[in-house]
Amino acid sequence: MPADEAAPPLDGFRVVDLSTGIAGAYCTKLFADGGAEVVKVESPEGDPLRGWSASGADTGGDGALFSYLACSKRSVVADPADSSDSAFVDDLLASAEAVVWSRGSAVAGHPDFTAAAIHARHPGLIVTAITPFGLDGPWTDRAATEFTLQAWSGGIVGLGRGAPDRAPVYVGGQIGEYLAGAYASAATLAARRRGVGELIDLSMLETQILGLTYYPVTYHQMLGRPWRDARKLTVPGIARAKDGLVDIGCGTAQQWFDLCAMTGHEDWIDEDSPLSITQQANEKAEELYAWVADQTVDEIRDLASAFRIPNAPVANGENVTALDHYVERGSFGTNPRDGFTQPGPPYRLTPAVLRAPEPAPRLGEHTDAYRRNRIPGPRGDSLAAGNAVSRDALPFEGLRVLDLTTFWAGPSCTHILALLGAEVIHVESTRRPDGTRLIAGIPATEPRWWERSPIFSGLNTSKKGLTLDLHTPRGRELLNRLIATSEVVVENFTPRVLDHLGLDFAAVQALRPDAVMVRMPGFGLDGPWRDNPAFAYVIEAAAGISWLTGYPDRNPYEPYSVGDPNAGIHALNGLLLALEHRRRTGEGVLVEAAMVDAALNVAAEQVIEYTAYGALLGRAGNRGPLAAPQNLYLSMDIDEFGRLDSWVAIAVTGDAEWAALCEAIGAADWAADPTLAGADGRRAAHDHIDERLSQWCAQRSADNIVECLWPAGVPVAKVMQPHRQTELTQLAHRGFFEEVGHPVNPATPHSSLPFRLSSGPQRFHRDPAPLLGQHTEELLAELGLTADEIARLAADKVIGHTV
């Protein structure tokens, strides 16, 4: 079959969707994009997401967000109280390879259709359970929302986001839901490679820890200090120009020097200053903001791009579709049923084997068809045919991955491969080591300082380390020989770097025709922004994530965290689809997993709401559309830094929770007030409710507030300092942190993966992160180089072990 007529990679993969909410819907959307047959089982009243609109618009039946997430799926209706319907659902499960499950529907809540019951009755099925805290442990049945999970994760204060004169703020939108969905998809596709039934127990708290914080426990315990101890505005960060908002990054010394030159202040450059770059920028904030205010967004961005300073416009639901880069790349399309605008897939495959979106189903549209044709399919045979590894092996065992990535986004993708069994060869050079080795705050006067980065350690356990100077002909020749031995090549440089090295997909295919190459540029391989430097904060601004983060009377805050790990988990999903296509056809595949495309997908609700309903979503501090009241409230605790700055998150999502809150805090008058009995009334009285809750919380410790409200069923959380994540009993129960020894650093807890696999492994980290070039000699000897040849490479500084 010609490549342009090839079946999509997940053709024949039947998935039953027993989930409600965004996480499960997004997981199964990624399956549907890959060609899977997704059968959504709904109770007679339908998935609650069908009636959802973040702006409160009248959806007229099916909401636009549902219509986006349900593209290409099938809908069947079943009432679990009816025995014939239960038998129908069980027949569907018997015919499927996987089921995605979460609490919240009558079907998923039936004793016969819990995740454990399904796994026990259908042991050959992959059951992926998405829950706030996991299927077992002391918190498994506790109430939670996106907002309270961000608080428990440490993500609300994780990277010092915001200003010290106000409460910290959560990352706007429902980012955690999408992260959980992307992880659930990757975990399911990885488990499928083993060809056996599996219970995948995914914790949304753990996905938020990986997506919203930057290895804070490892950092704190390895270096004895937190990554951040206070909230600080990034300068310039997001600033107001003549005609709109613009994001300008300044994360390195060189970028600060270039920013000084760009703004006409070379006199600010002081290479011997005892102040950090952040401190120097904050000292000049007033002058920098004045300069920005005197330019247009386009003028600033043209200058910043010329100086190689990270920059982006601040996108939102109204302006994002008109931005020139997205227009040229065709980043958005039209919903095939309801006509609003929606993002394209978060990755692009060549050959183009992803399925074009088909209209979302009406409630129960396919019930009759499946009732007539419910003969169980050949699940066991299809899994056996797709089995790429032995039943006892890790999912990626036997897969060699050449890892040309750096910093956070790329290594986070390849790290999951390594933790699940792949041989991942992380390539650096002594001239240009992985950037995370250099940003850990270790003075260069310290012995072997480049080996002491907790960030590098957190991202690179279980990998092998190789050094090659790719700016030398000999280094490039050896890299080419390694490519020929590798099934997968992953890189996340700007396109111009690979252009300079001559290492595009055609070059890789010439060396190994069946190789899968994953390219992770910030803004994609084409378009006017292709060569712009991309850090998380500019990606977040360019996609609209920043727009929803912060207070309505201030410029948005940069989340400063989501862009990288979100790109990494989406790149892994694209790679898994490519590997399946390669297994079926023998063809090599190019995966273009642009960071900004992944970000546009998790920020999709903004453009959908605007083009479907004309509603521009905006910042609301810590309030949000899902709950009322929802906010952070200051407790009486003095924090570990000596400040009155210890907060709790409270979110009331329904009338029963409101009644429970009133009873718990002794607010009988609230309970008796009919104007507060519904969400609209509580939203209208939010200021008054906040005032009284603030007074109540101010007289209590954070622990006392949680102990009072959580057992009553009210979603509540302490706003954790992220380096205190190990204090959470739920994480300890699940073994989320694993102690990892190291030849230079002390043994330190490392976060693992946010899911548990019933078939194992029991532990994810097998080896510490490699020392610089640790496995170079071993890997070159495998290529046939003699000891003398390797010694000459070291003498010529093509390879090495020190910076």
Care to give the gist of this entry?
The chain has 33 helices and 24 strands. Mean pLDDT is 95; it is low at 378-386.
Set down the secondary structure blueprint.
Elements: E1 14-18, H1 22-33, E2 37-42, H2 64-69, E3 74-77, H3 83-95, E4 98-101, H4 106-109, H5 115-121, E5 126-131, H6 146-153, H7 175-192, E6 198-203, H8 204-212, H9 216-223, E7 237-241, E8 244-248, H10 253-262, H11 277-283, H12 285-293, H13 297-306, E9 311-313, H14 324-329, E10 332-334, E11 341-343, E12 348-350, H15 367-372, H16 379-386, E13 400-404, H17 409-419, E14 423-428, H18 454-460, E15 464-467, H19 473-484, E16 488-491, H20 495-501, H21 505-511, E17 516-519, H22 536-543, H23 563-585, E18 589-592, H24 595-602, H25 604-613, E19 630-634, E20 647-651, H26 655-665, H27 668-672, H28 679-684, H29 686-698, H30 702-709, E21 716-718, H31 729-734, E22 737-740, E23 748-751, E24 755-757, H32 776-782, H33 787-795
Parallel strand pairs: 1-2, 1-4, 2-3, 4-5, 5-6, 13-14, 13-16, 14-15, 16-17, 17-18
Antiparallel strand pairs: 6-24, 7-8, 8-9, 10-11, 12-18, 19-20, 20-21, 22-23
Helix pairs in contact: 1-7, 6-8, 7-8, 7-23, 9-18, 17-23, 22-24, 23-24
InterPro entries: CoA-transferase_III_domain, CoA-Trfase_fam_III, CoA-Trfase_III_dom3_sf, CoA-Trfase_III_dom_1_sf
Pfam family, one: CoA_transf_3
GO molecular function: CoA-transferase activity
